[in-house]
Amino acid sequence: MPEDPHHSSRGSSDHTMGMDDVARRVLLPVSPADDAGGESDAAVIDLWGQPKIPDPFVWPQADALASSERELDTPVVDVGAAMRGGDGMRLAAEQVAAACASHGLFQVTGHGLDPALARAALDGAAGFFRLPLATKQRARRAPGNVTGFTAAHIDRFTASLPWKETLSFGHRDHRTSGSHVVVDYFTSVLGSDFKPLGAVYQDYCEAMKQVSLAIMEVIGVSLGVGRSCYRDFFDDGCSIMRCNYYPPCPEPERTLGTGPHCDPSALTLLLQDGALDGLQVLVDGEWRPVRPRPGALVVNIGDTFMALSNGRYRSCLHRAVVHRERERRSLAFFLCPREDRVVRPPPRLLAAAAAARGQDQEGQPQQPRRYPDFTWADLARFTQRHYRADARTLDAFARWLGAGGPNCAAATSASQIQDKAHQETV
User: Which of 14, 153, 175, 361 is deepest in the core (most CB within 10 A)?
Assistant: First the structure.
C-alpha cells in the first residue's frame, strides 16, 4: 500500500516501533515459575492432554462433516493497487463483487501491514496462551461480555464446545476515544507488566482498522455507492480483536475448533499463523479449506454488512477444524460500527434496487428492504445473551426485533427462536 496518512500500516499510535522493539515487546512478563499461586504450565496443557475428548466437546455429525480435499478458490485482491485508483481499483472491485456475491470471502495483499508487527502479535498470542491458567484467568470473560479470556466458551455453553481458547478485547481509534484503549485494557486487567504486550496489540488493531477502511472503499466501489460511503460509516467504529488458540486434539474428527457460523460483525480480517490450515468455508455442500498465503490477510463478510448491502453480499458461512498433533493460532479483527449507529443500506443502493424491481401496484417505487434498521449494540447484545450465532443469526435477530427486541420482556427468551445452534459468536 502506498504511503498515505489514511492508510498507514501502523495507524497514528505513539507506540510506533522498530524491528528490534517488536522482538523485545513480545516477551511476556509472567512465566509459569514466577506466577505464585497459579497452576503450572503443565497443568494447563494437561487440560487438553487427554486420550479422548470429553462429551461436551463432541459435535453433531452434521456439523463435523469431513473436510473436502478441494481448496477454496479465493481471489487475491491487491488493496494497495486499488488505493492508487485506475485499473487497480476496477480489478479489485470486480474481484470483491464476485467473491461477496457467492461465498463472501477473499484474501488481500498490498495491505501494508508490517511483517514484524504481524509476527509480534502472533508471538504475543502464543506466549499468552502458554501462561498458567491463573494468570490468564485475570482476564476471564464476564457473562454477557464480549471481551476477556475464555477456554472453550464454558462460561456460555454446555454442549458442542469449541476446542479452543480465546482472548478478546475492544478497540477504538485513539483519535476519537482520546486514549489507547487496548493498552489500558491489558494494564487494568492483567497488570502493568503487560503494558508492552498491550502496545503491540494497540498498534496491530490500528493497522487492521486502516486496512479495513481501505477494503471498505473497494467494497463501496464494487456496490456502486462510491469510495467514501462505507469508509465514513465505519471510521469512528468500535471493533473487536480476538486471539485464537487451537490446542492439539486427540480426536479431531469428533469436534471443531469453531463451529459453522457467520460473523455478526461487518468485516473480519484474519491473520493465519504459518502453513497449517484450519479455516473452512461451506461451498456447494463441501467444507473447503482456505490455505494460508504468505503475507495475505483473509477477509470475510459478516451479518452486519450483509444488512448494509441489503443482502447483495453474503455473510460467509465458515468453521475451523483442529489437528491431532499440531497447535494452531490465528488473529481475528472484527470491524464493527459505532454502537449507536443505525445500520441500514445507503439510499443510493436501495434506489438502484427499486429501479431494477420497478413500481408497486400504486405506481410508487418499491424499496425492497430485506432487514429492519438496527444498531450494532442491539445485535451484539442479541448474540451475546440470547442466541448462539450460526448461519441464521440475522434472520433470527430480525424476528427478535419484530417481537419487541430488547424492549419486550417476552422477546428476551429469543434463544427459543433458534432450533439448534452450534457456534459461538464474536
Answer: 153
